[in-house]
């Protein structure tokens, strides 16, 4: 189990040691790479070939290199109802250090609205593959409140069991079965949803945005691999212009639900060979 810490933007960060230097990075379910600012990575070689990467609305010029990554974790025993069970912080005696070699992108600049270091946790996550080298592997972020979240790394079906699996494409998106705004059916102009712990906004297609009252709740209906209906309830306020914005996306056919709107949920991913599942559950 890995403690997470909220910053001033309502984004949850984790502590990570790279080549001997501690940094803070976003636990980001919306991307797959490890990206670190060159100014934060004091012991990076900065000798690789320069290329450009894009992630969400951001872009950076980067140099790739292999680095030693160290993570402080805590042992945690979960029960059959892992996703919704109470996850108390273990004692210091349960602390365990994990170290591995991983490929990372050292950012020379940041273009966009944020300048975060990133630990990507999406379907092709370098971090997850290196920390848990054998498939199946999984993570889950329990978001109990805006100042209370932690991440679990585990082997599904061996260490822990999760409640709801949803088939995803190669980008971590889940097909939407239905939409409601304030309890009324809405046109399914959005085809898929991404739960994105690296964002603090709710992004919706323009036709849906125009039909939404200034405040209310959006209900996103999903279907698990076992055929069980699941409803992701997203309260919103269009007049919130700080860390819970509702954004209108003109050309999009997807909904992106940022971490601010995921309080009370466990969000994760299972990698099983070439098959990936998003996991979602309500926390008790």
CATH class of the largest domain: Mainly Beta
What is the name of the CATH superfamily of the largest domain?
Answer: Acid Proteases
**Ends apart, CA distance between termini:** 18 Å
What proportion of the residues form beta strands (DSSP E)?
over 45%
CATH fold annotation of the largest domain? Cathepsin D, subunit A, domain 1
Instruction: Give the overall shape, derived from the CA principal axes.
Output: globular
* Major β-sheet annotation: 6 strands, mixed, barrel
The arrangement of helices and strands along the chain is EEEEEEEEHEEEEEEEEHEEEEEE
Please give the number of β-strands: 22
Strands across the major sheet, in which order?
2-3-8-4-7-6
- Whole-angstrom Rg: 19 Å
| Residues in helices, as a percent range | under 10%
Oligomer designation: single chain
- Please, how many helices? 2
**Average pLDDT rating:** 89
Any idea what the CATH architecture of the largest domain is?
Beta Barrel
Low-pLDDT stretches are none
Question: What count of domains describes the coordinates?
Answer: 2
Structural class: mainly beta
């Amino acid at each position: 189990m890995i403690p997470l810490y909220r910053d001033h933007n309502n984004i949850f960060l984790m502590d990570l040691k790279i080549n001997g230097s501690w940094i803070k990075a976003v636990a980001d379910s919306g991307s797959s790479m490890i990206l670190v600012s060159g100014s934060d990575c004091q012991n990076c070689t900065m000798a690789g070939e320069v290329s450009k990467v894009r992630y969400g609305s951001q872009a950076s010029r980067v140099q790739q290199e292999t680095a030693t990554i160290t993570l402080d974790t805590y042992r945690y025993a979960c029960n059959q109802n892992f996703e919704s069970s109470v996850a108390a912080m273990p004692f210091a005696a349960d602390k365990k250090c994990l170290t591995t070699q991983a490929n990372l992108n050292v950012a020379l600049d940041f273009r966009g609205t944020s300048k975060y270091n990133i630990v990507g946790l999406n379907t092709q996550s370098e971090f997850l593959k290196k920390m848990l080298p054998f498939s199946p592997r999984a993570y889950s972020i329990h978001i109990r409140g805006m100042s209370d979240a932690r991440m679990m790394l585990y082997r599904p079906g061996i260490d822990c069991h999760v409640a709801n699996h949803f088939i995803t494409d190669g980008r971590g998106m889940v097909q939407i079965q239905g939409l409601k705004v304030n309890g009324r059916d809405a046109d399914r102009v959005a085809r898929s949803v991404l739960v994105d712990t690296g964002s603090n906004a709710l992004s919706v297609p323009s036709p849906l945005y125009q039909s939404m009252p200034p405040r209310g709740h959006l209900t996103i209906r999903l279907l698990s691999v076992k055929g069980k209906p699941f409803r992701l309830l997203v309260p919103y306020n269009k007049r919130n212009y700080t860390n819970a914005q509702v954004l209108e996306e003109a050309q999009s056919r997807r909904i992106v639900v940022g971490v601010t709107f995921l309080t009370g949920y466990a969000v994760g991913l299972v990698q099983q060979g070439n098959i990936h599942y998003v996991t979602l559950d309500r926390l008790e």
